[in-house]
Amino acid sequence: DAKTTQPPSMDCAEGRAANLPCNHSTISGNEYVYWYRQIHSQGPQYIIHGLKNNETNEMASLIITEDRKSSTLILPHATLRDTAVYYCIVRVAIGGGADGLTFGKGTHLIIQP
Amino acid sequence: DTGVSQDPRHKITKRGQNVTFRCDPISEHNRLYWYRQTLGQGPEFLTYFQNEAQLEKSRLLSDRFSAERPKGSFSTLEIQRTEQGDSAMYLCASSLGRGTDTQYFGPGTRLTVL
Across the A/B interface, how many CB contacts are shorter than 8 Å? Predict the structure, then answer.
């Protein structure tokens, strides 16, 4: 799976949009971009994933650049409960390669009151 | 709640003892994964099952580690002769095994080896 690069930490004010960047410049055409988050001492929580098109669900939006070399996770109205480590992962769809997820160190997002 | 469950949530043991953890996946999920996470690091993949078959093992899974999924439902991870370096969070995840195959994680088992 391709490697991702994320800033180690970010701050965001409560109520504002949190924009978390991820660089995946070596991504392959059949690799998806996944985002998970992990609140302290809990298991990772799935947020969203996408291949080419932008995606939105009840938790967040995922914006993928046209060349697919980077993406941004957007939490539209951050709350204190969004404070967590956010992981950006690229992964081949089922049957295309290794099936374990490769986590980096992620971005520690701190929401400030 | 129909999410992934793990038991126990916390385990403290003395060096040299054996420990066993259990994972119950989401109903109808064919794939089950084990990960290990040490302090300050992201989770690291250990192994996974497609139904009852163990299909992949990481080099992190030493001979002291063994995992089973006897009937393709719940899974157990056993660590024999525990060492202090085994202290970590052990995470289980499950997925449907088709489509984009999103993995959903359980709350983890925190192991402390004294």
Answer: 65
Nearest Cβ partner of B33 from A46, A100, A106? A100
Give buried/exposed letters for B80-110 (b at 16+ CB in 10 A, else e).
eebeeebbbbbbbbbbbbeeebbbbbbbbbb
Is the Cβ–Cβ distance between B105 and B94 less than 8 Å?
no
In tens, the pLDDT along A55-67 reads 999 999 999 999 9
> Which segments in chain B show pLDDT lower than 70?
1
Q: How many CA atoms lie within 13 A of B21 on its CB side?
A: 30
Mapped onto helix, strand or coil, the DSSP state of residue B64 is coil
User: What is the CA angle A66-A25-B32, rounded to 5?
Assistant: 100
Supply the DSSP string of chain A, one letter for each residue.
----B--SEEEEETTSPEEEEEE-TT--TTEEEEEEEE-TTS--EEEEEESSS-EE-SS-EEEE-TTSSEEEEEETT--GGG-EEEEEEEEEPTTSS--S------EEEEEE-
Is A42 at the interface with chain B, CB within 8 A? yes
User: Which one of B91, B92, B101 makes the best mutation probe of the A interface by having the most chain A beta carbons within 10 Å?
Assistant: B101
